[in-house]
């Protein structure tokens, strides 16, 4: 048994893929786990948990949004000998007005943070803000490719964080000493409005992108016309609230604290993503 093994939950996802790649490049033994891995790991089926936890020293814990399963998972991990957990949470979980704190998605992170802090394990919490990669491989990518982003975000701005930085911080916390007991809030270096984002993405891909601010009601109506369920469209519109109101426009120093360097710029992200935009 290799007790230095790292377990990466959500290993096929946006952050997990990049963490796996870094661990592989460093020759660190690791196990990627999700519903499509072997052995299979399903948050909703606790009978699948032990097989991925056994033999592991450190866990990158990407929780299941909308569920409060981090606490029982951490308890089981500790029983099976895990020593260190790096929890992926989200910026804004302790900011009044950022989100509906009673909503299931908020509770995932609020209860999850409390669970790791009180676990008795070595813990590090990552609180990233909006991912830059939302524009290249996440829920804004189709709009960017189509050349127009029609969002209910007004003229709000955010300090979008590059997921490459999140992965660098996660790997440092998983594999190095000095990160235990730290909560790293992660952002990019400066706030950008969606007009600036559109200009930078357009320049990088060599094809114009525009941002059109629309009302929440118009966004919901357009999403429903595209086949969304009305409730889902309203939920998605709600996600823009922190962007619209400037709650995500501040700089957070987590990348510098964890890595001793500045976060990557949105321009650098856009250049590296240009071929898929
Ligand atoms: N996007 C943003 O701007 C942003 C900002 C701050 C925080 N966040 C947080 O980031 C998190 C998402 O991280 P991400 O982007 O790396 O993930 P992601 O790309 O959405 O991927 C989700 C991962 O979870 C796995 N998964 C899904 N359901 C599962 C289940 N029932 N059991 C086991 N594994 C399951 C998926 O793999 P399989 O399909 O193979 O199972 C996949 O590997 C969320 O908690 C979100 O709140 C996002």
From TrEMBL:
Could you tell me which species this protein originates from? Glycomyces lechevalierae
Q: Where is the NAD(P)-binding domain?
A: 10-176
InterPro entries for this protein: Ergot_Alk_Oxidoreductase, NAD(P)-bd_dom, NAD(P)-bd_dom_sf
Q: What is this protein called?
A: Uncharacterized protein YbjT (DUF2867 family)
Pfam families on file: NAD_binding_10
Q: Which residues form a coiled coil?
A: none
């Amino acid at each position: 048994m290799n007790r230095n093994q790292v377990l990466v939950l959500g290993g096929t996802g946006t952050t997990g893929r990049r963490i796996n790649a870094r661990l592989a490049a460093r020759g660190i033994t690791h196990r990627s786990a999700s519903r499509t891995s072997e052995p299979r790991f399903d948050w909703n089926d606790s009978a699948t948990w032990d097989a991925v936890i056994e033999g592991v020293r450190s866990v990158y814990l990407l929780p299941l949004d909308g569920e409060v399963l981090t606490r029982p998972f951490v308890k089981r991990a500790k029983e099976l000998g895990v020593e260190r957990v790096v929890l992926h949470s989200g910026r804004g979980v302790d900011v009044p007005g950022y989100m509906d704190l009673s909503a299931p998605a908020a509770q995932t992170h609020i209860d999850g943070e409390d669970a790791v802090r009180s676990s008795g394990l070595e813990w590090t919490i990552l609180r990233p803000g909006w991912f830059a990669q939302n524009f290249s491989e996440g829920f804004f990518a189709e709009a960017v490719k189509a050349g127009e982003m029609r969002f209910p975000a007004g003229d709000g701005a955010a300090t979008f964080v590059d997921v490459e930085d999140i992965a660098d911080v996660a790997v440092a916390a998983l594999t190095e000493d000095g990160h235990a007991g730290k909560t790293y809030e992660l952002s990019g270096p400066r706030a950008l409005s969606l007009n600036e984002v559109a200009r930078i993405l357009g320049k990088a891909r060599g094809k114009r992108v525009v941002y059109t601010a629309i009302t929440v009601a118009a966004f919901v109506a357009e999403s429903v016309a595209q086949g969304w369920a009305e409730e889902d469209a309203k939920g998605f519109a709600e996600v823009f609230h922190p962007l619209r109101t400037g709650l995500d426009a501040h700089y957070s120093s987590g990348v510098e604290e964890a890595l001793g360097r500045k976060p990557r710029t949105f321009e650098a992200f856009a250049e590296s993503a240009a071929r898929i935009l």
